[in-house]
Amino acid sequence: MDYSLAALKIFGSQLSGATEAPSSEGTSAAQMLFGIRFQRAWIQGVILSASYNEAGDGRILLDDGSCIADLFVLPKEAEGRLWQPGMYVMVIGAYIAAESKENYPAIKVHKIVDLSDQPHREAMWYMEAAEAYNLFYLPFSAASPTP
């Protein structure tokens, strides 16, 4: 994982537009979206379901308002906290293109935070994602050559 690459603040449905980034020597596999190389996505939404196996691994379905995302949670991330339906959470994790279905992205969770007690969380998220798109992603997208 290349942590020098930013986690894109996006809606899950936007991940369906991601393509495999050209590989270069010494870099790990990555995706391209809006002309930006990335490996991790930052999304927020409401947990629809959560299930855990005996090893402590979890699988969470998250509705971010644009699609349903499939989240894979390792025991380390689930430790001390059971993620439950109805919680509003922020998730940062590796986008797993190979495991993603059309408009149904798969993300291996690196960080998950419960934002349920924040009253304006959802409205703020939509504004943050729109701001990131307008300030950072759109300029890259406009500058990228069209295939």
TrEMBL record:
InterPro entries: NA-bd_OB-fold (IPR012340), RMI2 (IPR032245). It comes from the Eukaryota. Coiled coil: none annotated. Gene3D superfamilies: Nucleic acid-binding proteins (2.40.50.140). PANTHER family: RECQ-MEDIATED GENOME INSTABILITY PROTEIN 2, RECQ-MEDIATED GENOME INSTABILITY PROTEIN 2 RMI2. This is RecQ-mediated genome instability protein 2. The lineage of its organism: Eukaryota, Viridiplantae, Streptophyta, Embryophyta, Tracheophyta.
